[in-house]
Amino acid sequence: MAQLTRSEILKRWQASESCSGENLANLDLSNESLSGIDLSETDLSGANLSNSDLTDANLNDANLSGANLSGAMLHRTYLVGSNLTDANLEAANLRGAFLSGSLLCSTNFKRADLRRATLGCPKCEVPGPFGSLTSFENANLEEAIFGEIKLKGTVLLGANLENAYLYEVDLSETVYRATDLEGAIIKKGRN
To answer: How do the domains of the chain map onto residue ranges?
Structure first.
């Protein structure tokens, strides 16, 4: 499959056409306004989406491994089942984003805004204990929902978890201070 160019992506977006399933690996889409674009099942590995506006976009099942999304606007964006291995989302705005079932391994969420975001999935375990850490350092996770996930190799130091809902979350291999969990709502299953 031939790779689309930046200008072809912008033309499709302006015409409200889907880019689903396309090969956009290593493409530079930084600083673009792509609000509402359909990039589901797209290969965006190594792509530069820094400072782009992807508000309300569909990135379900997209391959974003190694992608740069630092400073990106991902407000209410769907990232369900996406591969975010080695992705950089530092200082990105993911308020209200849906990341259920996403692969988070060595993902950088430092200083990201994840207020009211949804993360986790049943029988999903973040791979790579220590050595491939996923970092939520100093991230805003206020009112975020973490459901049924083992946060293995994850750093929560300095994260704001005020009113975050942690349902059946295994923190046994997570780096955090007790004070980082203050204000979080922690619920265990019916075991």
So the answer is: 1-191
Distance separating alpha carbons of residues 134 and 128, to the nearest angstrom: 9
Q: DSSP readout, 115-141?
A: TT-EEE-TTEE----SSS-EE-TT-B-
Residues in the chain: 191
**CA–CA dist 70, 74 (Å, integer):** 10
Q: What is the pLDDT of residue 81?
A: 93
At 176, the amino acid letter reads Y
Over residues 164-183, the mean pLDDT reads 89
Residue 119, both tokens: 């993360």
Reply yes or no on domain 1-191 having CATH 2.160.20.80.
yes
Would you place residue 130 in the very low, low, confident or very high pLDDT band (cuts 50, 70, 90)? very low
Quick one: residue 160, left, alpha or beta (phi over 0 = left, psi -120 to 50 = alpha)? beta
Nearest to 118 by CA among 145, 136, 82, 91: 145
**Quick one: average pLDDT of 17-43?**
97
> Structure tokens of 146?
């973490």
Structure tokens at 72: 């990106």
Cα 28 vs. chain centroid, distance in angstroms? 19
User: Which tens digit of pLDDT belongs to each residue from 93-103?
Assistant: 999 999 998 88
Q: Single out the residue of 81, 82, 121, 114 nearest to residue 97, CA to CA.
A: 114
